[in-house]
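Worked problem 6 (solution included).
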Amino acid sequence: MTELTNTPKVTLGVVGVSRDCFPASLTKKRLGILMDELRKAGVAAHKCSVVIESEKDSLLACAELMDAGCNAAVIYLGNFGPEGPTTIFAQRFGGPVMVCAAAEENKAVLASERGDALCGMLNCSYNLGLRTMPAYIPQMPVGLPGELVSKIADFESIARVILGIANLKIFAFGPRPHDFLACNAPIRPFYDLGIEVMENSELDMVQLYRKAGEKKSEISRVVNEMKKELGDGCAYPDLLPKLAQFEVAMVDFMEENLGASQYGVFANKCWPAFESAFGFVPCYVNSRLAGRGIPAACEVDMYGALSEYMVQLASSVPATLLDINNSVPSDVLPKQPDLKGAALEDLFMGFHCGNTCSDCMKNCSMKYQVIMNRLMEDGKEADITRGTLEGQLKPGPITMFRLQSTSDCQLRSYIADGAILDVDPCSFGGIGVVAIPGFARFYRHVLIGKQFPHHAAFGFKKVGRLLFEAVKMLGIDDIGVPLPSTVMYEGENPFELYR
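Solution. The predicted structure is:
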């Protein structure tokens, strides 16, 4: 798998806190054991030498972690902890923060070395609320060191999402096609999240492409990479220099225009004018960009690009953007299919023209876009509609996700875990059969009911619980998830459950 660039590296710092009526030695001892358990699990973290007991300690701890290059912090209540200094540290640190606490080890400590951190977590959370300071508090925040390790590892992924968004720039090229306004939405919420937006015209893209044609050696290098990646699946070797030139143009543009941001994603106009101007479809290049950690969303879907990037950050593997596309006829499935906990009505096909990277495909080859070929070339031998990466999506666990703004600039999201089945979808494009337990009701009452567009980001790991926490830390409360049959969605007709 290609190394993911364009992705923040999380450097964790762990700081212990101690209330003055408890011995600081108790926190120091428990913190030492926690750090040992983190090392055993391969979770790298800097142990802060300062145990926070006072406001001055908060400043010293911040300075030490910043000097150590830490961009995310774990606050560990080795005992009750001082809620004021603790939350001052959280507020001034500047990066994402997690709070967890020590459980009592055994009955021997209860006589005189009890830490009471179960109690301290309550005061800490109350004070975080007073400061309107978001922090990640796991489902079970109080535990023994060995129990907290996996939660801290989860926080590393959650922090990666937060850091990536805080330093992100979205590059858009072109207005949306008239028939596909559904993915268009206000850009104000991007700025609310701290994301920069740079919109450009399709003429800018044409100029960039022409300029990149001068970089013969870079184009040649990319052509060779493409040949190696596609192997026998390269039906159009004559097209590779054009595709490589476009890739060079996009990468150079991003590197030259990040400005104050560190990471970038694309949301580009990809039809119908693109094909006539460039002589190919950009899908395969988009797939390669996604494979190296630079999502390039179709149809100027800026929220799709952001969603794809968030899934990538949570999973640390390339993600893709797919249409929630079509129903699955029963004769596509084997006689006794394993639907991974879903019912037949919960199945759908995730499809796009060919933007999913090869690492996320079971099989793939470069082809042409059938629908565009009918529209632009009257179904004749493909020319300008060549350049898709098509095949069956890689079977296995997935998370489907989208973050979207409403027309009145309110952010909402949905998250669902499921699987791509190892079933031949019997169709064209980059496509796979998706199974999400409870999807039929979820589709009606969340996707349709809350007016989400047709694009969804797909990650090739189950990271729903991590994304849920990251979205909450961003201050977004409207998060739709599939509900069990015993729980009704808002507005769901109760009589439908008894038909």
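Discussion: The radius of gyration is 25 Å.
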